[in-house]
Amino acid sequence: MTELARQIVLASRPHxxxxxxxxxxxxxxxxxxxxxxLLLKVRYLSLDPYMxxxxxxxxxxxxxxxxxxxxxxxxxxxxxxxxxxxxxxxDLVLSYSGWRSHALSDGxxxxxxxxxxxxxxxxxxxxxxxxxxxxxxLKIIGQPKAGETVVVAAASGPVGSAVGQIARIRGAxxxxxxxxxxKCALLxxxxxxxxxxxxxxxxxxxxxxxxCPDGVDVYFENVGGAVWDAVWPLLNRFARVPVxxxxxxxxxxxxxAGPDRLPQLMRxxxxxxxxxxxxxxxxxxxxxxxxxxxxxxxWVADGRVRYQEDIVAGLEAAxxxxxxxxxxxxxxxxxxxxA
Amino acid sequence: MTELARQIVLASRPHxxxxxxxxxxxxxxxxxxxxxxLLLKVRYLSLDPYMxxxxxxxxxxxxxxxxxxxxxxxxxxxxxxxxxxxxxxxDLVLSYSGWRSHALSDGxxxxxxxxxxxxxxxxxxxxxxxxxxxxxxLKIIGQPKAGETVVVAAASGPVGSAVGQIARIRGAxxxxxxxxxxKCALLxxxxxxxxxxxxxxxxxxxxxxxxCPDGVDVYFENVGGAVWDAVWPLLNRFARVPVxxxxxxxxxxxxxAGPDRLPQLMRxxxxxxxxxxxxxxxxxxxxxxxxxxxxxxxWVADGRVRYQEDIVAGLEAAxxxxxxxxxxxxxxxxxxxxA
Lengths: 339, 339
Description:
The structure is a homodimer. Chain A is α/β, with parallel strands linked by helices. The first copy, chain A, folds into two domains: 4-125 and 308-337, Medium-chain alcohol dehydrogenases, catalytic domain (Quinone Oxidoreductase, Chain A, domain 1); 129-282, Rossmann fold, CATH 3.40.50. Chain A is built from nine helices and 15 strands. In chain A, strands 3, 4, 5, 6, 7, 14 and 15 form a seven-stranded mixed sheet that branches. Chain A has a six-stranded parallel sheet with strand order 10-9-8-11-12-13, with helices on both faces. In chain A, helix 2 packs across helix 3 (158-169) and helix 2 packs across helix 8. In chain A, 50% of the residues are buried. The A-B interface holds A 53, 59-61, 221, 224-225, 228, 237, 243-246, 249, 252, 255-280, 283 and B 53, 59-61, 221, 224-225, 228, 237, 243-246, 249, 252, 255-280, 283. Strand 13 (275-278) of chain A pairs antiparallel with strand 13 (275-278) of chain B.
């Protein structure tokens, strides 16, 4: 009897919205660790909007997943076999093992996790990549000052909720945008946003304007699309726009209809002295990760920063869960409990 | 016999390209300085692209000139009458007197000029607002590093020529864009650009690409339009785009035809970690003016930074000269010798 491992590969590239048939669940022989290697059993898989980008061939900041290749992703895993002196069975690690039940590792890039310090799933959310995205994007680019207005969309997600809470810690006013009454209630009640605005409302643009009587000083851009259209006219002189995602555009299949608004954007960047700056969180890791671990660790421990997780069960649930994430169907940080 | 002064007012707002009838030359009684005032005789009037913005009603970073109001502008003037202890007849000053032959001043904002230190017209160009725009935009936003490629358009103008020369002092490669063979020769021969590219050539985009084999790290944006379109695909990861002008768009009369390229721009800002930041030079004056005066003063004095002036004679020549400036017909810093 051979033990088997499972993995999900990119079966084909999506055109627009990904569909279940773009993914394929495969059963493969259990990997066997060689000298200096570990066998990891994946416990939790993080699902994040950037994964849509990896499914496409379009040039981006990272190479696409090849068709037939295992989908990439951050994971929390348990060491089940070790041929290394520095790891023992039972150790929990943050790894980038992808969408699979088991993986080999030579130890490179693994971060040991201590479940006594914080629930290990937080390494995929508030204390991991999404939390760091919020922290570094605000610190380096957004630079909110006391009394300023910070707006963020997808505000019930792991990046947005951290942006709002950090903005408030910095003394700014936090305006969160989310889809639907339940998410908006979450923003106010769990995350302490000053105002929550529902982007599904037919009066969304007017609601947002009313929520920002002094304009917008920082817009943390992670969605684009109609939310950007509503925020844009509200941007104050010297406003900063850290751009870390554009999830509303990820499923676009061709050029957008005119008129061409690029000249108007450049004009506003000029006349309002705007800063629009894209970033990938890992480019800030060397400079900011130690400060993030210390500050965010304290804030999470003392409850000043709260988080919400949406955990789905089973590796086979990952494709539908990612499709739903791209449409805003998750509530909080989306995680697959693999094992 | 009453002495008369002359001034040019905004007769009407232009629709698109300004025309001579948008301006009106008026003769008015000679102003008489009151207690604490000076009478200035304007010697030189600076013409700059921003003036097109002041002729429009559209919201910008500065209030428009009212219809019937005197056109604004920086000037070099001579004190001809003084009722202040701190200025004497014969003193030369940098003032913001506008398009007129004579003006009153209470001394506010005047900067004394020493013709022994540098030709006084440089206070309107390389050692004045345009030079400072280049200096501060590069220092604060562009941040060129040794070996990087810096691209600037309108490169024979006072901002562009300073950008290229400062970039080279910082160890970067300077690629200048200008219209026509004569300006391109000026870029290479007078200003020392590594490459000059003619934007009137039918192969402009390909020529620019060939001139930037390692891509573009800093694009100093002062024109927009077709030049932006050619630079955009060449921007490297982490490229910086200081935006200080969009002269190619200033005469636009309506929305541009589609497709809408805004989503693509935001996507590139994200995936290439671009920084696009608008600025008005005066916002950097408090922090950077002393360093500018010292560094740029030295560079101009020792010939490391050269400049070119295009001087037209007579206040009445100002409207045609500004219209020409907006179409790139000037060669170097455009100045009206008023008196």
